């Protein structure tokens, strides 16, 4: 069986984790600090706060941005549900904006049509590893006093107009799930350009604990003292996970290079095949391809999907439009709201994409797919 995604774990990764298990710190120790520093450097030199998952990162980011009841968060339906649900959990109204027909990235024109003076955050998603159009989205956010959030679960290691992912939006969230561009097992991070937002994110993920004496409401206690000014959660990542992440970061460039090679091999073989449509890449974006989303035309997606799986190629579909999910549909969101996203969903199949995929594996996928659509 050939999976659509898989982690790549080396002996160095194993040794890095083992060293932590033999040491004094399993969590909240120096490996966490080192990993956060390295992620921040990768993301343009901004502060990074690690956490237990990409979903936790989204929850932390929205909380750090002050999202709450009465606010609106504009986002894309072509994403995993957490991009929207983490805003809804905090009491915000989620407003879905349609995607560009070719890239499946949130369409700035659609965003501009739905923002209001209640818009708190515009949350883009770097679908498949291709950065969204942040230079178009930021002025829209600025015009209504909102912030931009980049859900970069797919795109860490990529660039947009020469700038690294993490330096594109006001706040960026990352995921380190095993199938992502690097892994900590489970894990994620928030990168914030504004140090004050980064500090709020940190405190939220650390149960709301404040340790700065200058901010204490009560003074005169000993060095053990801390305060909690706002509710938070324990979303802290462990030193064990961060040791794995630090080791993985050393191979991120190699991971990205191999994903680019696989994408090029798919593109070359599939670009001229009738009944298929290959992914779009903007000239100013250097993606860190997390997915290879091929589109199957003519209403044959399910037939082709089932055929690939029957052949032992465990393809996936990314994603079911979020507003179709019962939790949103039952709240009044209607099918037909975002026609480009819905059509993309009807056609999309994610082909196998991970660094350890061999050229022979890729050729097997290509051969099987082209026979199925012939």
From TrEMBL:
Lineage: superkingdom = Bacteria
Under Pfam families, the record lists: DegT_DnrJ_EryC1
Please give the residue positions where the record annotates the modification N6-(pyridoxal phosphate)lysine.
Answer: 180
Cofactor field: pyridoxal 5'-phosphate
Statement: the UniProt record of this protein carries the keyword Transferase: yes
Family, according to the entry, reads as follows:
Belongs to the DegT/DnrJ/EryC1 family.
| Family annotation (NCBIfam families) | PseC
Query: What PANTHER family is this protein classified in?
Result: DTDP-4-AMINO-4,6-DIDEOXYGALACTOSE TRANSAMINASE, TRANSAMINASE
Q: Return the protein name.
A: DegT/DnrJ/EryC1/StrS aminotransferase
Q: Which organism is it from?
A: Kribbella flavida (strain DSM 17836 / JCM 10339 / NBRC 14399)
Give the lineage.
Bacteria, Bacillati, Actinomycetota, Actinomycetes, Propionibacteriales
């Amino acid at each position: 069986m050939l999976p659509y995604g898989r982690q790549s774990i080396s002996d160095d990764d194993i040794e890095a984790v083992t060293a932590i298990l033999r040491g004094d710190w399993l969590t909240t120790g120096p490996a966490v600090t080192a990993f956060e520093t390295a992620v921040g450097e990768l993301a343009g030199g901004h502060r990074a706060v690690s956490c237990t998952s990409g979903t936790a990162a989204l929850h932390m980011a929205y909380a750090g941005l002050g999202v709450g009841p009465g606010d609106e968060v504009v986002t894309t339906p072509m994403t995993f549900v957490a991009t929207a649900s983490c805003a809804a959990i905090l009491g915000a109204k989620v407003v879905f904006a349609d995607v560009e027909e070719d890239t499946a990235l949130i369409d700035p024109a659609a965003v501009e049509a739905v923002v209001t003076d209640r818009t708190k955050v515009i949350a883009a998603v770097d679908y498949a590893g291709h950065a969204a159009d942040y230079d178009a989205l930021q002025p829209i956010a600025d015009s209504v006093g909102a912030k931009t959030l980049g859900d970069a679960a797919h795109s860490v290691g990529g660039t947009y107009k020469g700038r690294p992912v993490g330096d594109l939006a006001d706040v960026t969230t990352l995921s380190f799930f095993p199938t992502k561009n690097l892994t900590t097992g489970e894990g994620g991070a928030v990168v914030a350009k504004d140090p004050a937002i980064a500090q709020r994110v940190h405190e939220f993920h650390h149960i709301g604990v404040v340790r700065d004496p200058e901010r204490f409401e009560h003074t005169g206690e000993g060095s053990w003292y801390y305060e909690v000014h706002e509710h938070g959660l324990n979303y802290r990542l462990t030193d064990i996970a961060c040791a794995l992440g630090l080791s993985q970061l050393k191979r991120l460039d190699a991971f990205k290079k191999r994903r680019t090679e696989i994408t090029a091999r798919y593109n070359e073989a599939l670009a001229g095949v009738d009944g298929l449509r290959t992914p779009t890449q903007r000239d100013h974006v250097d993606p860190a391809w997390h997915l290879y989303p091929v589109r199957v035309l003519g209403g044959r997606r399910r037939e082709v999907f089932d055929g690939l799986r029957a052949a032992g190629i465990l393809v996936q579909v990314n994603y079911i439009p979020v507003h179709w999910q019962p939790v949103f549909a039952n709240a009044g969101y209607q099918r037909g709201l975002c026609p480009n996203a819905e059509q993309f969903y009807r056609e999309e199949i994610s082909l196998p994409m991970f660094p350890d995929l061999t050229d022979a594996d890729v050729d097997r996928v290509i051969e099987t797919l082209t026979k199925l659509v012939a």
